[in-house]
Write a sequence for this structure.
C-alpha cells in the first residue's frame, strides 16, 4: 500500500466534498488512483475525458505513482 | 507571456505590449461570455483555474505556436472567478512579420488552451440551475483500455 495525496478539482471536488485527502492505495499508476477513488470523485466520467498530474507535472494515465506522491485529478476541462 | 487574471482583462493596455517595429500583422481573439449554451439561458459563469499548471501548460502552448508559426510577440490572458454576460473570458494576441503566421498562431493557441489547460467553467442559468461545462472535443475521447485494466483496489 502507498500513501497517496489525491487532489480533486471542480465537479470532482464538489462530489468528493473535499479538495484533497491522503489515502492508502494499492496503486501502481495514475489510472489505478483514478479507478480506486471513483466512489469519491464520481464514476460517470471516463478517464479519457479527464487529465491527471503527478506532483504538479502533467502526466499520462499510465504514469507510475510512488509512496508520498500527490496525484491531481482533473475533470474534463473547459477553458476559453 | 501567459497569465491568469482575477479581474477584467485590460485589453487596451495589453495591446501596447504587442507593438513591434518588425511586425506587419497583428491578430487578436477575444472569447466572450455568451448568454446561451445548449438551449440553456446563461446568467453568469465562474471559471475555476489551477494556476500553477494552467500557467506552465499555457506557456508550453505559446512556445509550440512559436515553433510552428514564428511570431514576434504573443500575449495570452485567461480569466478566473466570476464573469457576467459579455465579459472577456480569454484574450489571445499575436504580432508577426506577416498576417499568415499571426492568424495561424492565434488559432493554434486558442484551440490548445481550450482542450489542455486545467480550467473549468461553471454556468449559472436563469432558471436557477447551474452546471459544469464539458469541453466538446474532450467528449469525443473514448474510454482508455487501461481504464478497464486499472487496479480497482
Amino acid at each position: 500500500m502507498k500513501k497517496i495525496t489525491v487532489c480533486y478539482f471542480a465537479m470532482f471536488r464538489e462530489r468528493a466534498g473535499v479538495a484533497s485527502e491522503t489515502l492508502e492505495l494499492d496503486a501502481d499508476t495514475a489510472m489505478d488512483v483514478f479507478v480506486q477513488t471513483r466512489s469519491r470523485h464520481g464514476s460517470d466520467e471516463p478517464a479519457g475525458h479527464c487529465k491527471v498530474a503527478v506532483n504538479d507535472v502533467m502526466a499520462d494515465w499510465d504514469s507510475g505513482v510512488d509512496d508520498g506522491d500527490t496525484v491531481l485529478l482533473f475533470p474534463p476541462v473547459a477553458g476559453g | 507571456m501567459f497569465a491568469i487574471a482575477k479581474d477584467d482583462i485590460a485589453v487596451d493596455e495589453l495591446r501596447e505590449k504587442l507593438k513591434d517595429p518588425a511586425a506587419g500583422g497583428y491578430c487578436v481573439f477575444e472569447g466572450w461570455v455568451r448568454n446561451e449554451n445548449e438551449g440553456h439561458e446563461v446568467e453568469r459563469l465562474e471559471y475555476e483555474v489551477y494556476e500553477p499548471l494552467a500557467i506552465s501548460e499555457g506557456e508550453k502552448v505559446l512556445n509550440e505556436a512559436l515553433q510552428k508559426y514564428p511570431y514576434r510577440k504573443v500575449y495570452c490572458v485567461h480569466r478566473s472567478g466570476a464573469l457576467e454576460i459579455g465579459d472577456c473570458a480569454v484574450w489571445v494576441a499575436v504580432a508577426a512579420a506577416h498576417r499568415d503566421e499571426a492568424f495561424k498562431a492565434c488559432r493554434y493557441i486558442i484551440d490548445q488552451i481550450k482542450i489542455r489547460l486545467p480550467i473549468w467553467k461553471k454556468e449559472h442559468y436563469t432558471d436557477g440551475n447551474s452546471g459544469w461545462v464539458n469541453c466538446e472535443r474532450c467528449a469525443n475521447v473514448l474510454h482508455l483500455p487501461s481504464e478497464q485494466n486499472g487496479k480497482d483496489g
Remarks:
- The helical segments of chain A are 10-16, 30-36, 38-41.
